[in-house]
Design a protein that fits this description.
Layout: E1 14-19, E2 25-28, H1 35-41, E3 49-59, E4 65-69, E5 81-86
Parallel strand pairs: 1-5
Antiparallel strand pairs: 1-2, 3-4, 3-5
């Protein structure tokens, strides 16, 4: 490296979580992370949250966004948006 060189650092992959979680927001995606670990980063469920109503919005290879019902053991991908729904009872 020399004086005046520009260094580009690739952005760490992130995922987003919102809905009935304690701390909604963007979080750094760790290798092999699953939905259960993502929920823990978001502080866990609120008193009204349920792990049965989790949806992931995910970009498909053609650029469109699809929604999938998620299980706690599903792998989280870069730029996933995880929504935690409210329990009906």
């Amino acid at each position: 490296m020399e004086s005046g060189d520009t260094i580009f650092v690739q952005r760490a992959p992130v995922f987003y979580i919102y809905g009935e979680v304690q701390r909604a927001g963007a979080y750094r995606l760790e290798p092999d992370m699953v939905v259960m670990q993502a929920l823990s980063l978001g502080g866990g469920l609120t008193a009204r949250g349920t792990d049965r109503g989790i949806k992931i919005s995910r970009r498909t290879p053609d650029g469109s966004v699809g929604k999938v019902d998620a299980k706690l053991t599903d792998r989280v991908r870069p730029d996933d948006v995880i929504y935690v729904g409210e329990s009906l009872f």
